[in-house]
Glycoside hydrolase family 3 C-terminal domain-containing protein
Amino acid sequence: MQNHAAAIPRLQVPDYDWWSEALHGVARAGYATVFPQAIGLAATWDVDLERKIAETISTEARAKFNAAQADGDHSIYRGLDFWSPNINIFRDPRWGRGQETYGEDPYLTGQMGGAFIKGLQGDDPKIFKTIATAKHYAVHSGPESTRHAANIDPSAHDLEDTYLPQFRMAMVDARADSIMCAYNSVNGSPACANEDLLVKRLRQDWKFNGYVVSDCGAISDFFSENGHHFSPDAAHASAAAVRAGDDLSCGTEYSALVDAVHQGLIDEAAINQAVTRLFTARFKLGLFDPPGSNAYSQIGPSENATPAHAELALQAAHEAMVLLKNDNNTLPLSSSVKTIAVIGPNAESLTSLEGNYNGVPLHPVIPLAGLQAKFADKGQKVLFSQGSPLVAELPVIVPSTVFSDKDGHAGGLTAEYFANADFSGSATTQVDAHIDFDWNRVVPVPVQGAKAFSVRWMGNFQPLAPGDVSFTVDHAGCEPHCASTYSYSVSFDGKEVASDASNDPHDPGRPLTFTVHFDDAKSHAFKMEYSRTGADYGAGVRLKWKPDVEQLRQQAIQAANQADVVVAFVGLSPEIEGEEMPVHIPGFSGGDRTDVALPAVQRDLLDALGATNKPLVVVLLNGSALAVDWAQQHAAAILDAWYPGQAGGTAIADVLAGTANPAGRLAVTFYQSVDQLPAFDNYTMEGRTYRYFRQKPLFGFGFGLSYSKFAYKNLKLSAPKLNAGAPLHVTVDVENTSAVAGDEVAELYVTPPAASGAPNHWLAGFKRVHIEPHKVAQVAFDLDARSLSLVDEQGQRAVTAGDYKIFVGGAQPGETDSGMDQKLTIVGIQKVDEAVSSATAPSRVHK
């Protein structure tokens, strides 16, 4: 009943670790296909693509699991239970983990999350391909700093209207076989001991018969000094959790259950019930079947990270791009553009491709490399300058522009890779643009299969100006279960200036900061050596610096002045927004944000680039909404690429060049400033998200432009007057009125009669369709009673009488002139019950 389930030799039951991750690709288990971060997948508004991605992830998961089983490896992240997707509502853009979600809308989240769950679990009636775990149940969306102690008292309306619908869709409609309870308390009871959530709603109303797992360490929060003060000790806490239906602890707290039984806090029958649920899941995964007896167990290593999967990652990145502004058809870039200045801290960032909870991509394409490859083929010149760090207070990757290889060629370092830890024997040599590598549980591609490796980077470094330069060597991406040793040294002009080593295989490594003085701005000989053993369980390595901000900005201005157009890669990074992080600087706190504006140093960079009067294209890489008000007013174009996954650089270049046509839509509201938002720790929905935000946003939920133009015609309802509870069928014709083939996302919104506390409108349907030039596609929607229902102050959901408006268009009502609406009159009242019949409960028979 703990995530690492011990072996039971007398029953020939092997040990098994339940903890695996697959948010947007198999994570923390070596090389895998890395798709766009979840918030980027949400921006595709493509349910079919989402399911196909999840099917691909589950194939790679089986490939990895089968290989691990053959090697006798039962360690963490090698199992078939995946603690994904995260279907919490991204109710406030300041939440650092919002990037892991499908945005702010329950319906969009439920549809995308449901497709992901179905893809992970497969459609075999007898066996799961993998098991999906919907998380974090419930009312969990920040702040990170108080998540272990916070008690949230949502109104009955908000609980039913916002915080639970997507979980109901995941468990009832998509039939996830697992759910993770959250850290926080809800209405005075920790989520993992909350009988209203875990017993009444989940098991009684929704007829869930799978297993519940706690968030990691959540049971300790019951009794810890900085937790909920709900239980006096681990025995009482564990007993309370199991009695409420939490079958599995991510952690070791349930070791106290033996003591709890002896104290009479819980009986063995309750424990037997939990164990039965857990073993049922293992049986339904086929874990006790003879090897090779089902098709899933025959998936081999060759089906991991394949070229076909890489193509799917590229398609996903294409579809995730949201074009927010495009004045005077600046994009796609004209063939008359001969020189492009690529500027910004995210142009060479691997981290901002990957997002968090990620696997390691085999061949990631960073934005600069993508543009260089794309536009070099067209005979166009690409200049690069880093321009600024992400934030002034933290170091950034040392860019390729200050390096040259040992032969004097600018733009990178000569790298020698050895399949051992002592730099002996022959080496594989290549040019690395910079030192920014994610080797989490892998060895570098040039020496794949080695049990240890070492790398020597050689060449020259040219400072921006004479003076001191601060450098940091950072062990990148080492999640909590590292098991390797490392050593490295850094030299300038033949003199070692920094070194570090660890002989403890569980030491994740410490960032090491050192300062080097340069008497001039000439090139200086550079060498860095890095070695690692136990490579299957290690991290990566990054060389960062803290350059003079003004010098870096001036270099960027010089590059911009030489160009016909400037493409600025700005935004955020998983290094400054994410889960419970030790980052406390202006605008950021503990993984969350305290401001939604672009960091000040990047705003200054954009302002300086704007002053050159060159056309400015702003490309955002980010996991949450940004108040890019300056760019909205002054930039020629804005493209949001999110954290786009392994093919991000290629996808961005394709959109800029016009070989891909953007059609993504925002899954979150972009507010004008933090001043438009209620307090972050206020969970009342009034005043936040498109449904209850009563002001004008910077960019609205559902917004996104295209290189094509579309018109909506012939909107028809199956009936203009409807008895409450009856279904509604809606059709509309969508015409591509342009000469450019493209995708359109048809969004259906329901606007209710005016009433106190009612939402502005709500999303009740959407479909992404591809339409050739001057062709028409008919789009149909079927709305059931739940889709047409409202929630009252007591939390009761019902279809109520009145005049409604059904709108279909490429954005929200009022934000597009191409949509159409029709009046719908509903007669009578029909309650929509939360309970489901046992006939619709999840069922899968394993023989």
About this structure: The chain has a mean pLDDT of 96. The CA atoms of residues 67 and 301 lie 7 Å apart. The chain is about 20% helix and 25% strand.
